[in-house]
Design a protein that fits this description.
Layout: E1 15-23, H1 27-39, E2 43-49, E3 54-60, H2 66-74, E4 79-80, H3 84-104
Antiparallel strand pairs: 1-3, 1-4, 2-3
Length: 120
């Protein structure tokens, strides 16, 4: 895995891709949102379609999450469209992001070898 192809703070094994529909996105606030999101640490790619209101974003789940993105969007009166499918995806995405964050601090333990006993 070569992490030199990504922005600072993004590792390939923690990179996630998300697609959600938005409400309140206009031609006027589109540029401001894109500019501010590109400054956020660990966001690799960002695409906001104004006509369909679709947000496509790729980020490192250990350094960023959907809550940060939602807070940034709320500054511009933009929010995630409250449809049934978007709510399911949002909760699933939050679950996966939390799992990736917890795995960052996990120390693997191998149980296929005998324990090391201290010498007497």
């Amino acid at each position: 895995m070569n992490n030199l192809n990504f922005k600072v703070g993004v590792k390939e094994e923690n990179l996630v891709h998300r697609k959600l529909q938005l409400i309140g996105i206009t031609q006027y606030n589109h540029a401001d949102i894109s500019q501010e999101m590109n400054k956020v640490f660990a966001i690799e790619k960002l695409n906001i379609e104004v006509i369909s209101g679709m947000l496509s974003i790729s980020y490192d789940a250990t350094n960023s999450n959907l809550t940060k993105i939602q807070n940034l969007l709320s500054k511009y009166q933009v929010r995630i469209k409250p449809t049934y499918w978007n709510r399911i995806k949002l909760h699933y995405y939050q679950f996966v992001d939390q799992n990736i964050l917890e795995q960052k601090f996990y120390k693997a333990v191998c149980c296929h070898k005998a324990p090391v006993l201290p010498k007497k």
